[in-house]
Amino acid sequence: MSDPIRIAVLGCGTITRGEHLPAILRNPQVRLVALVDASEDQASKLIQHFKLDCRACGDYRTIWGEIDAVINALPNHLHAPVTLEAIAKGVHVLCEKPLAIRADDARACAAAAEANNIVLVVGMNRRFQHNHELLRAVLNEGTLGRLQNYDWQMGGPFDWNSASGFYFSKDQAGGGVLLDYGVHLLDSLISWFGPVTEFKYEDDDWGSGIEANVRLWLRHQGTHGAVSGQVRLSRTYPLSNRLLVQGTDARAELPVESPDAVLLHRQLQGRAVTDELEFASSGKIGSSTFDRQLNNFVRSIQKLETPRVDAQQAARVLELVERCYVRRERLPEPWSEAGATAGVRT
Questions:
Q1: Is the per-residue pLDDT at 171 higher than 80?
Q2: With 0-12 CB in 10 A as exposed, 13-18 as middle and 19+ as buried, what is 22?
Q3: Cα-Cα end-to-end distance for the chain
Q4: What is the pTM of this model?
């Protein structure tokens, strides 16, 4: 057994407390050296809460030389600059999504990691849901027949317990629901169906803030031919919260409440049936996508695997997001148009 990889976590917000720290503590191949936060007191409280044997500090620059890797869970606008600093110091990086708030910065991170022989993994943890690989297998087997279209809806009132509130700052977040949550969906869709060749994008940003609701039509060209679909995202109201892929022979459904299963809807002797597909043996370390993601990061550093999501892939998704923002159209909101009437009293 090689020595454990010395790791630090930058940023002590909700995602670190709820996901990254538990995954680190369950992984015997890493040793936590430090928690870093602009509020050193916040880092100290987490150390006390988890009874950790590591140090708290308020400046990540003080830990270079003590660590082999970092998890960059800072606010979005700090992802690229701090990742570039870490790479320059010879430190491997698992960076939370999005890798940057501009595609150019993501490409710069990718180039720096390659030039310095550094592992740079982007935290698209949903790629580690078993239903992601299950759907790929279903598509490759031709189980659905000829692919026709897909519909992916994810939404509900925003309830993330953000420690810093950066999500609501355009300068710090870079965008709204498309950049925050939509990158997960776009990353998966491009992985399954290939590059996007055409799109139409609508959101409810009137020009001075960040979008809370999105409607996006996409056309892909990949190994399954031309595939079209729709994505809907919301931070204000509930949606169906599932992906539905329609083929000529069957439909595949990925409900949000079953991240390790694919529902296959088809006809059997003229009657509608639903099969639930799951891997018989997952072979995973730990129980969460963050465990699997961390394990992929560690094994990539050990040269036993390659990153599931690398910086080049993340940059391609960000390029699409930027194109959407440039070509945005306003989501129809007839109730807010001039002359609209809220109601008529009779």
A1: no
A2: middle
A3: 79
A4: 0.90
Average pLDDT in the 1-23 region?
93
Q: Burial level of 89, CB count in 10 A (0-12/13-18/19+)?
A: middle
- Exposed, middle or buried by CB within 10 Å (0-12, 13-18, 19+), for 11? buried
Helix (H, G, I), strand (E, B) or coil at 11: coil
CA angle 109, 304, 132 (to 5 degrees): 75
Number of Cβ within a 10 Å radius of residue 129: 20
Backbone angles phi, psi at 131, to 5 degrees: -70, -20
Distance CA 115, CA 121 (A): 15
Which of 73, 52, 100 has the alpha carbon at shortest distance from 10? Answer: 73
Query: 3-class SS at 265?
Result: strand
Q: Quick check: 16 and 40 in contact, CB under 8 A?
A: no
List Cα–Cα distances, 90 to 67, 93, 249, in angstroms.
10, 10, 51
As to burial, measured by CB atoms within 10 angstroms (0-12 exposed, 13-18 middle, 19+ buried), residue 49 is exposed
Say which DSSP state 43 is in.
Answer: H
What are the structural domains of the chain? 5-125 (3.40.50.720), 130-281+311-330 (3.30.360.10)
For residues 299 and 103, what is the distance between their CA atoms, to the nearest angstrom?
27
d(CA 14, CA 42): 11
SS3 136: helix
Q: Is the pLDDT of residue 337 over 90?
A: no
Q: Could you tell me which of 76, 90, 81 has the C-alpha nearest to residue 119?
A: 90
Triad 44, 46, 52: Cα angle to 5°: 85
The model's pLDDT over 82-98, given as tens digits with 9 standing for 90+, comes to: 999 999 999 999 999 99
